[in-house]
Amino acid sequence: MIKRVLKRQFLIITLALSVTASVSKAQDVLFPFENKGKYGYINQSGKVIIPEQYSFADHFYEGLAVVKEKGKKGYINKSGKLVIPAQYDEAYKFKEGLAVVKLEGKWKYIDNTGKVVIESNADYTYNFNDGAARYQKGLKFGFIDKTGKEILPPTFEAAYDFSEGLARVKTDNYKTGKWGYIDKSGKIVIPAKYDDAFEFKDGVANVRVGNEARGKYGFINTKGEWVIEPQFDKANQFSEGLASFRIGDFKTGKWGYIDKTGKIVINPRYDQAMPFSEGLACIKVGLGKDGSWKYIDKTGKVVIDKDFSFPSDFKNNMAFVKTGGLKSGVSAYIDKKGTYIWQGNK
Fold first, then answer.
1. N or C: which end of the chain has fewer CB within 10 A?
2. Segment 34-46, tens digit of pLDDT
3. Is residue 224 a part of any domain in this protein?
4. Are 297 and 312 spatial neighbours (Cβ–Cβ below 8 Å)?
5. What is the DSSP string of 259-323?
6. Element at 13 (helix H, strand E)
7. Hey, which residues does 140 pair with through a beta bridge?
8. What string of DSSP letters covers 54-123?
């Protein structure tokens, strides 16, 4: 009997600690908000944690967020302390431990202490992804590793980040050339034969064969084999097991969703459709200014129906939205029930 009581008490304590940790973790997530031209941060309860004081504020990445003060950018921590001084003309989010900044006309990579790790003489540099970073010299693209060593010289007409070990590149004329995929040795592992191509995600990539007006999109694997034959007028990357696709032209076509077998799981009936994030996706019903954004679940059921003029993906159970007009509307954050957690001034 005593053992049962002790066991029950242990389970209650463990559950309480788990709930406390979850609540603590949730409250640790911060979201930027804007009020009368100044930015600050709220938590998931809508409580202001860092008062509005910046002329710009980005989301937190790897514990730090870019903010702008007196025309310069720097980084704060979640206590609101400026841990890397606002001295940069440009500054981007931390990714894989490094961030791209521009100081006195020169691009650099810094660590989370602000120490310069890589000096760059490129005309433009990009974040690290899969351990490599793109850079641009003139009109050509190349790649470096995290020591700053050049792993691929700037010979590509166009190039995008590595994802799942491969990067999409264009080797011929930018306007008339085709897209293919390289590995980090520079070897072309999927021949350049696509008229449009995107990053690999979950082992597949969406590509187009044919011109933008009449071409068709399908999906290939990392060997370049078709896993879903080209048949869609537009198709986006998979996210949470589903990908949005369009049947019809840009203006009047309708969007739906397929699974990884190519089976249609949500019929094309939307005027726009965004990727799924945390189980929900924002879709648009109606064209132009008359259209409104709503949120659906993976069955296509509308679960948040509030006619937003601007939506965004859910992150940490919150989504930034606008109501009442894209420019003059009211900014807000909602939870997954559509409840307003925070609303800006009208």
1. N
2. 998 999 999 999 9
3. no
4. no
5. -TTS-EEEEEEESEEPPPBTTBEEEEESSGGG-EEEEE-TTS-EEEEEEESB----BTTBEEEEE
6. helix 2-28
7. 137
8. ESEEEEEETTEEEEEETTEEEEE-TTS-EEEEEEESEE---BTTBEEEEETTEEEEE-TTS-EEEEE-SS
pLDDT digits (tens, 9 = 90+) for 219-251: 999 999 999 999 999 999 999 999 999 999 988
Indicate whether 172 belongs to any domain.
no
Give 264's Cβ-side CA count (13 Å radius): 11
Q: How many residues does the chain have?
A: 346
The token pair at 191 is 């021949």
> Range of 64's domain?
28-121
Rounded distance, CA 269 to CA 15, Å?
44
Q: Determine the Cα–Cα distance for residues 97 and 112; give it in Å rounded to an integer.
A: 7
CA pair distance 223, 221, nearest whole angstrom: 5
285 lies in some domain = no
Query: Using one digit for the tens of pLDDT, what is the confidence trace for 63-108?
Result: 999 999 999 999 999 999 999 999 999 999 999 999 999 999 999 9
* Residue 265 CB neighbour total at 10 angstroms: 15
Backbone φ and ψ for 89, nearest 5 degrees, come out as -75, -30
- 283, two tokens: 């879709």
Q: How confident is the model at residue 7 (pLDDT cuts 50, 70, 90)?
A: very low
| CATH number of the domain residue 89 falls in | 2.40.128.630
Structure tokens at 66: 């870019």
Structural domain contains residue 312: no
